[in-house]
Amino acid sequence: MRPDPGVTLSRDRGRRRIGGPLARWLAQQCPDGRVLAVDNDARYLDESGEPPLEWCEADARTLDFADGTFDVIHSRMTFCHLANRDEMISRALRWLRPGGWLALCDPMLMPAASSADPDVRRFFGAMELAWTAQGSDMVEWARALPNRLATAGFADVSVRPQANLLGDSGVYDQLAGANIEQEGAYLVERGLIPADVHERVLALLRGSRLVELRSITMYAWGRKPLSDGDGRR
Ligand SMILES: C[S@@+](CC[C@H](N)C(=O)[O-])C[C@H]1O[C@@H](n2cnc3c(N)ncnc32)[C@H](O)[C@@H]1O
After folding, report:
1. Which residue owns the Cα nearest ligand 1 atom 27?
2. Parallel, antiparallel, or unpaired for β 7-10 and 212-223?
3. Model pTM greater than 0.90?
4. 232 lies in a domain?
């Protein structure tokens, strides 16, 4: 990221009272630049952005910017929810200045059917159907990220995967527990799973009786070539 003026687009604006920690961090890195943070749901944001940080409540799928507007475009756990995610990678390439970077982070959830526990299989199976119905891809998209970036025309494509365990009492396990509480309420309300399945899954997690690989978080990034030959092997 350049510390000189320019615009950095970050998609980090999360469901926390003090939302957007990454957008705030980016803004600290470039006090003389600008950071534009986008999310279509502002319910959990209780502060307005202060320069160089600007909040924008918008549907990312419909955004457009002039060619070469941004130095860095970053998105965490959001492209997987955008039904037009492939097209968004091409748009991001256009919005970046030559030499600018796109950094994406999305989850690769383990398929529900591979869990050792029947209730967990049912619970995550229902979640998979709900995500697919709303246009999200939490299982296959992230694995394809490096290829998507390279195919779109990015150079210097690289990845850093991080494995996440249920049942190890770590940070991911705690986050997953909170998610499963919320998601279970959603599934039960809509009749997609019985309440006792949700309760048994929560009991398993609270009792640390299930230690299982739940996901791989895929960090992937690539650079917009400076010229036609740049980055070609
Ligand atoms: C898993 S959260 C990640 C939040 C934040 N980026 C972070 O890493 O903490 C996914 C976010 O994507 C946002 N989102 C989903 N669809 C969107 C869309 N079409 N346009 C903009 N934001 C969207 C949701 O409102 C939610 O805040």
Report:
1. 14
2. unpaired
3. no
4. no
